[in-house]
Backbone:
């Protein structure tokens, strides 16, 4: 049986080491949001490393990025990016280009259009299991499936935790647990100097997709999960996670209420 | 004189008429499908055909939003829908999903594409990416600052459209599915439940809220024109005719005066007061100069203010007898001091001395919205002029 490949985002809890079928994604300093720890290029020494850039970049930031990645060490195999401007910067370079445009890669035709340019795409984990399977079946290149992690539901350029703390004269917190007042649904707001991300408090995992074809690998985001990489992969494969959610895998969203419900 | 476009929202045909009458150069509307305001009345194909004809007869433009994020189930009729829009000769579509943009290019569908703000373009490289797909105009991310606008314009020479007024998402546009998880309503397919206006409990005593104040760029309009922004966009396809009339008229007057170099700070401040009064939230310049702070948002959830300033819509004016037929919208009474405003007329103050119903019976108060009433008004009026409570002095 072919072993699945994993793309693991390197966070504080990950003790990066050589693991079979694992590539490490390093949140690059100045170009990520929603993480506590990011890495400078010189700190990235692991084999099979990727740069992970999940911000939308303004003019100043993309100019800094162009300078930062002008010369990359040989252990950097590729870049996972959110902003399509990054593709324009690296399109002629021999790097694996992976697009993770959050919430935007939801249809097979959208993904196949991007695949004419990039090497792979992370399928948005905002869609159902059935939709994901159809996409994997029809995609023109192997895709990355969001395998495990706290799902990100909102990304703002604003300093939401700081603004809240300043308004009420509290001590600002980089990580702020929240519960929606009526439903009591829990979230985690994580702020850094580039904005705020709201994560699901529960851990999403999509073990159902483990045996699907046309998967380049599974994206594992251990941020806020206090476990080692090998342990997380093991938990994922053995279905041993507590406080978990299936996100939208079995929950189709609605586009409009019927007329009589409106 | 430099030409810039004032672009208004139009949730239905009447709102489009009002927008054009009050000075919009173009409107953006949602069609039956693929639009991010699923709950607006929107335009079916027949109404859209009439709307295009109406707009073009006035020498104005109409853009159609096709700006959802596609799911597999949305793909089926997409090409036919785009072909139908091209046959209607709409002036452009507004899209963000790359497949829609690519389909138009590959299939040579004669449609001009404007890139939706949902794509959140903030830099020249990203703009260049879309330019290569044939996009003619970028609707900038609301987070774009002055430097971003300068660079994108200089490097790509694309047309730029900039939101200048209206509600803001707390998130980067398109990067939020809080509505999906909390209500199952798909935010990126037109059914956002505006969860960013809700509250959240924390370990602290006060609830957390992230509700943004609205956007206004009144004091940066001249700068934006000088930077080469081509189109100035007002948010609000769900808003009513009074809001559209008031906002579009204020911006029409300000833009024209800026182009003639005659807008004073006092006038701009007056328009700001008018705009703030008709909105249901406070407003701020948001990201243009600095990042927003605690002053640019609310902390106790929904903060909308109900406003009953809109008193009546002028239906007819009998110039000979100087009688205005008014459709009442909110309560008014004898003795109230009101203002009439409208296109191609100076706003004037008026004290209500006598109110008559349609049979000529004199009334003390008008308290039945949609009732037709008559007022003797010496200044001439035209249909679609509006009567509002006078609360702001120029």
Residues:
């Amino acid at each position: 049986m072919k072993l699945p490949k994993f793309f693991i985002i390197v966070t504080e809890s990950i003790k990066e080491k050589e693991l079979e079928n694992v590539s490490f994604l390093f949140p690059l300093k100045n170009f990520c949001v929603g993480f506590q720890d990011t890495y400078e290029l010189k700190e990235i020494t692991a084999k099979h490393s990727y740069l992970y850039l999940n911000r939308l970049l303004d003019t100043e930031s993309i100019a800094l990025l162009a300078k930062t990645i002008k010369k990359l060490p040989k252990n950097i195999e590729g870049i996972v990016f959110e902003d399509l401007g990054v593709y324009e910067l690296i399109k002629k370079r021999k790097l694996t280009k992976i697009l993770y445009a959050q919430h935007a890669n939801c249809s097979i035709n959208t993904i196949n259009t991007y695949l004419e340019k990039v090497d792979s795409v992370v399928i948005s984990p905002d869609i159902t299991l059935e939709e994901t399977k159809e996409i994997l079946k029809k995609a023109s290149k192997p895709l990355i499936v969001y395998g495990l992690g706290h799902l990100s539901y909102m990304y703002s350029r604003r300093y939401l935790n700081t603004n809240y703390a300043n308004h009420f004269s509290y001590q600002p917190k980089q990580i702020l647990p929240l519960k929606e007042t009526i439903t009591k649904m829990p979230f985690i707001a994580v702020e850094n100097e580039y904005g705020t991300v709201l994560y699901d408090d529960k851990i999403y995992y999509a073990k159902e997709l483990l045996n699907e074809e046309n998967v380049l690998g599974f994206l594992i985001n251990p941020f806020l999960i206090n476990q080692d990489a090998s342990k997380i992969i093991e938990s994922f494969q053995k279905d041993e996670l507590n406080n978990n959610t299936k996100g939208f895998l079995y929950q189709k969203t609605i586009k409009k209420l019927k007329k009589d419900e409106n | 004189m430099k030409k810039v476009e004032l672009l208004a929202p139009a949730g239905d045909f009447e709102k489009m008429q009002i927008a054009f009458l009050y000075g919009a150069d173009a409107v953006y509307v949602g069609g039956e499908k693929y639009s991010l305001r699923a709950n607006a009345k929107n335009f079916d194909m027949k109404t859209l055909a009439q709307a295009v004809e109406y707009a073009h007869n006035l020498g104005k433009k109409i853009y159609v939003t096709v700006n959802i994020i596609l799911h597999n189930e949305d793909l089926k009729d997409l090409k036919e829908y785009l072909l139908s829009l091209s046959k209607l000769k709409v002036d452009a579509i507004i899209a963000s999903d790359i497949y829609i943009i690519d389909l138009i290019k590959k299939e040579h569908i004669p449609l001009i594409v404007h890139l939706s703000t949902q794509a959140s373009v903030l830099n020249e490289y990203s703009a260049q990416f879309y330019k290569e797909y044939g996009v003619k105009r970028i609707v900038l991310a609301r987070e774009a600052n002055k430097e971003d606008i300068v660079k994108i314009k200089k490097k790509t020479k694309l047309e730029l459209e900039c939101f200048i007024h209206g509600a803001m998402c707390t998130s980067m546009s398109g990067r939020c599915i809080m509505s999906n998880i909390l209500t199952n309503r798909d935010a990126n397919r037109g059914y956002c439940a505006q969860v960013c206006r809700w509250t959240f409990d924390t370990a602290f005593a006060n609830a957390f809220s992230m509700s943004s104040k609205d956007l206004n760029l009144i004091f940066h309009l001249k700068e934006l024109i000088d930077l080469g922004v081509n189109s100035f966009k007002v948010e609000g396809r769900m808003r009513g005719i009074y809001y559209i009339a008031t906002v579009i008229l204020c911006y029409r007057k300000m833009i024209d005066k800026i182009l003639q170099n005659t807008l004073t700070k006092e006038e701009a401040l007056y328009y700001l007061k008018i705009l703030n009064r008709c909105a249901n939230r406070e407003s701020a310049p948001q990201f243009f100069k600095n990042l927003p702070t605690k002053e640019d948002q609310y902390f106790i959830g929904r903060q909308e203010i109900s406003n009953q300033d809109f008193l009546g819509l002028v239906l007819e004016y009998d110039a000979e007898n100087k009688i205005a037929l008014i459709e009442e919208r909110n309560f008014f009474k004898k003795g109230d001091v009101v203002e009439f405003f409208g296109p191609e007329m100076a706003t004037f103050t008026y004290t209500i001395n006598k109110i008559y119903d349609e049979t000529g019976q004199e009334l003390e108060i008008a308290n039945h919205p949609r009732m037709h009433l008559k007022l003797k008004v010496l200044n001439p009026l035209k249909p679609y002029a509006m009567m509002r409570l006078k609360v702001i002095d120029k």
Q: What stands out?
A: Residues 59-68 of chain A form the longest helix (10 residues). Chain A touches chain B through 69 residues (CB under 8 Å).
